[in-house]
Amino acid sequence: MKHISCQYLELLDENTVRHKTPWRVSIFSLVVFLMTVVFLEGSPVYAQELVIRQSDAPLVKNSTKPPVGQLPLSRVAEGEHDIRRAWFAGPTSRYTHGVLGDAIEASQLVVETRSGHHIIAQLPPDRVFEDLEPRVVNLTGDQTDEILAIETHLQQGASLVVYDLVGDGLVPIAATPFLGKAYRWLNPVGVGDFDGDGAVDVALVATPHIGGILRLYRVNGDQLSLFAEYAGVSTHHIGSTELGLGRVVSTSPRDHILVPNQARRRLMLLEWTPHGWREHDHADVPGVLETSLIPVGPHQWRFQVDTGISYDVFVVQ
Questions:
Q1: Which among 125, 124, 138, 133 is positioned nearest to 89, based on CA atoms?
Q2: Which ranges in the chain are annotated with CATH 2.40.128?
Q3: pLDDT tens for residues 207-243?
């Protein structure tokens, strides 16, 4: 069997070969080593890094003419399939948490369909939509839209609920459990295939103001089933109307998540694997992250810090 000298291996692992005594290793052993590196934890390792650069471009946000009755400070979301637009309405002061800029929450979720019909989901008196923008997504892959909304119980705190158009109604079809206590809130990050099984999962940050926990859920019938957690993150600060401080990064074989740490001074690129979480890279933010990460290109987002300066963050592979 052919051999190679230890001097070559010294480039691969300098801690393994320190002496000058000649020794040899089989090509088979080297191949096994390289396969372990390239296919770590059952999937290819792609060198990804985060790069943050100052930007002179303005931070431009999408804006549309508000529909009649739209909740103050809220935003209209647009769909791609059977939902044209969605927004929150029915302002109410029955829940006084006030973490989203004021103490006015929504009691209604309104959808405008492609055919021009308006459909309303009305909450009972013990609940509110503690939210500012419906997230129109496609969880089922059936060319129809679903909506993710933060639904809060006055005594049990927040839950993430999936709404769907069923017949002539807008109805909840799946949800996470409530957080269990009043004035406990969560903030969705987005959807993606986070476990590599081909199905769409949901990511959110629970209690982002008090030890935020990134949580991943699978859609399991009428439930969103928790399968992974990562502590020490935050995608919101009290009083802000900015909710998009975390983003899903599309990649293969599993989608990644770009999220700030609890202090919002560092961005982390995270991937869940069957063997646990992997931090591909992190980058320190030149200040405190204040705004949503606004998409401005493939794997590129723009944001502002507390000094008012804008930066772009890139995921480089």
A1: 133
A2: 41-60+188-317
A3: 999 999 999 999 999 999 999 999 999 999 999 999 9
